[in-house]
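Sequence in, structure out. Go.
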Amino acid sequence: MVVLLSAVDVSLFTLTVPPLSAARLRAALPNLVEDKLLGDVTDSVIACSNSSSDGVRVVAVAQRAWLETLVQALHNMGARNIKLLSEQSCLIENTTEARVALTETSSGIALTLRIDTQQGMGLILNSADRLLTTLRAVVPVAAITLLVKADAVASYQALLAADAQIKVIADSPDMWRIEGHAPNLVTGMSNEVHATWNWQPWRWSIALASVVLILNVFALNMDWWHMSKEA
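Output:
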């Protein structure tokens, strides 16, 4: 199961890391990012991308308490092999422009920004009136593609008409992709939370394999007993 976390709930940044094995890197991450966090590092879940570019990896950070509650609730509902990815890491990037997905919620306007391959963020606006100013504060000069619901394209085109470099189009599944190398926040959680294995679908296979193993052991012992008696 893949769960996309709201971009405003996950901090995403790049970090130069030493060449370490996956286990050692996971253990070293809290010390590497401690000076970049406002709160206590023990209150956060930290994960990094599977691949690096010249030693630079993408690091994701989220609050531990609610994330563990979420994962435990999913486990209780029967979910296994959970991946927790941030929205901004799954919005397909474009090398020539920034992409922004806009969602209207009861608490305001949520923005998911994918600035380039390694950078992304989430913002909440109280009003659409500040949308143009906010977009240009984050992306000062580059072209921007804004993704909105199909029935809201015309209204946002009118709202942003003053900036010719901002294009408004309808959001679609083609604009999103589950990135295999994106930071999976489950890997930064304790083993007790994420490393449970659902053996129920395999119980009959395990039982059959056990019976076959017992029969083979019994046959080998019988063969040895006959050979020993003949000797």
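Check: The helical segments are 22-33, 64-76, 87-90, 131-138, 153-159, 191-194, 203-230. The beta strands are 2-5, 11-16, 44-48, 56-63, 83-86, 97-105, 108-114, 120-125, 143-148, 166-170.
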